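Pasting as-is:
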Amino acid sequence: MDLALYDPEYGYYARADRRSGRAGDFFTSVDVGPLFGELVAVQLAEMFELLSGESRIPNPESGLDLVEAGAGNGRLSADILRAARQHHPAFYDAVRLHLVEASAAARAAQVDTLGDLRDRLESSGPGLPPSFEGVLVANELLDAMPTHQVVMREGGLREIYVAVSPQSQVRSHQSVTGLTTGDLRLTAVEGPPSTPALQDYLDRLGQTLDVGWRAEINLAAAAWVRDAARRLRRGFMILIDYGHEARELYSPTHSAGTLTSFTAHRSAGAESPRDDTPPWLQQPGEQDITSHVDFTTVRVAAEAEGLNTIAFLDQTYFLMGLIDSWSAEVLAERSRALKTLIAPGGLGSTEKVLILGKGVGRPPLKGCSFKVRAT
């Protein structure tokens, strides 16, 4: 998964500055249009006011950081800043923007995407700033972090590995290893867990997999959150992604696992346990690979580093709290986009929002004012 998505030469994300939208392979809230960024800007403006301790325009030299992790070409930050410039000038004047993106192609497109907002850009790179104070936003980042897939057998936990054999029947010029897959066949095989951390992960959660169940254990997501929490001196983190609490993720509902691939807006779905070439192994570097986020572990990892959990809720309720002050006329004008963002069964209930804070207590935020509920 790491190679197929992020290899500098052949990785799916590395070879393009944008993969989502109608012409891409999947659809995100950002692809609905600027409305999502405008609504997020409402919440960020409130957070920046809480952090600055005053409503007047702060001194730009003592501004606050807005870090977008997994920023792609910068579309979400551009939408946020355009809305801030128009409706939240104190926030706009205070912000120092940091765009964090693994893809060099996407980073190269960020300045053009920002356009006349580029003066707000403080840094752009593949890693988080060493230290920052303000707000970190990550929209659909954790689900694309490389995960371990496991399966429970009579003898205990087993891990799924990728085996390489010659004489592939699949012809392709692409490769994630520097070899041509036209001469190779990639298959999924079972073996002993690569690390005791996988069983420890489930034990800490108190989760037991029944025989035959498959699951994903994303050690990378927990490690990333811990690292981000250490770098945040004071402020907030807003993590938006699709996933569940551990009790739901590791349950009969998801007993086939959630690891899947997306091509042309179609998910391959869960593969047959007897299929030794699952969809996520086909056409490496040519499709998205993703798995659902375990928000319980993400939250616990953040709290272990001194963050407080402020809320965990569906995107529907988060956004409904942010439009509370909007007029009926404005809502009517934006109704189509708004329905796409909040519709149950779509982005509204699929996307979850985890809000964390450090050194800020548990303030009553606008994004939590409608209802705090995760379905």
